[in-house]
Amino acid sequence: MEHGVFQYTAEDEERILGGLDGEAIFLKTPSISELKRKYESDIKRMINLQLHMITLGQYHKEGKIPRGLRSNIRPNLFQGNTIYCARFVMLSNKYAMDTILLNIEYLQEESKKLQQNTEGVEQKIKALITIEEWNIFKEKIEKESVKLRNELEEIKRKKKWNRDLEDYEAGHIYSWQRESNKPMWKKKGGHGKNQYNDRNEWFQDKNITNIVENSEFNSKSMGLRKQSEFTPRVNSAVINAFEKAVRGEIEELRNRAICKYKHPNITVEESRALKELVHDGDIIIKPADKGGAVGIMDRHKYVAEIESQLGDDKVYQKLDCDPKFNIMAEIKKCLEDAPTSPRYGEVHTPQPNAEDT
């Protein structure tokens, strides 16, 4: 120790740690519940990976690209050139198809690793439970897996595959193709007449600049849809409980405010007299120990009596510090050690004295 700084040496570390008995293998050994959750999670992930690979493979076989892998790059330089755009699409398609193969290749490797991990977890579970327990657990996992597979297949078929087929049937594969085929801006009620070449002409016709300057920029003046005021219903137990608690507190505050301003049951003179007594520094107002009465005493005599009682060494002892923190620590320790005590749970029945019998 130098300059009042304490530290352990390497010898102290070796001595202290060498005195430990036992090993901490239990810290790194998962419980049966953790192994079951791991197994269930891996099975679900394997189903997801398998369906994802099969779906990507079908996209590639039919020469189609899912929306998530379509390039967002646009042919801005020569968007009006048909040959340029066609070659641009071919390059984008090649990039997307190779990306599909890359994803499938690495998904296959990930699926193999996951399969091996799952088999290892399965062996650990079987070593900790009986065959009957394993069969029940396995049956439960299989039912959940079939349900999950059906749900994922439905999602991939309806929300992805069929949607992407509609894009190819309409010839709107990439976002810039869909936008280029949109109809021109039309004036309401024009039926093909008074078409606008771009948004700027539409804004000019609507006189948007003057609307903003006159602070009348709203949906009605622009002919747009009025903003919805619909509030969705929430079926969440947490939100409902929070709302109930807030409403209860608001009601409590309201009741307090009502009670606060009720008509008093004493006169103005009596109220003024009570306030003067409360703020009078020469007296002490205390409730009596019994009977519900109120006592009024001279402050100086009250303080003198307290000091005389506390000054009696036979009854009171002066302490160097507040002992409540040590007492709290002792009580906490007793409560924590109680479950491990051999006398925990025993009911103590006092025995009658000989004089009482």
Can you describe this structure?
- This protein is mostly helical.
- The chain is 60% helix and 4% strand.
- It has 13 helices and four strands.
- The protein has helices at residues 10-18, 25-28, 32-61, 82-128, 131-170, 175-180, 199-206, 208-213, 219-222, 237-260, 268-278, 299-310, 324-337, and strands spanning 185-186, 195-196, 283-287, 294-298.
- A two-stranded antiparallel ribbon has the order 1-2. Strands 3-4 form a two-stranded antiparallel ribbon.
- β3 (283-287) and β4 form a beta hairpin.
- It is extended, with a radius of gyration of 41 Å.
- The protein starts with 9 loop residues before the first helix and ends in a 20-residue tail after the last helix.
- Residues 211-217 have low confidence and may be disordered.
Number of helices: 13
Percentage of β-strand residues: under 5%
Structural class call reads mainly alpha
Overall helicity: 55-70%
The first-to-last residue Cα distance is: 68 Å
Low-confidence stretches: 211-217
Form type: extended
| Order of SSEs | HHHHHHEEHHHHHEEHH
The number of distinct β-strands equals 4
- Largest beta sheet, briefly? 2 strands, antiparallel
What order do the strands of the largest sheet run in, or round the barrel if closed? 1-2
Mean pLDDT: 78
User: What Rg, in angstroms, do the CA atoms define?
Assistant: 41 Å
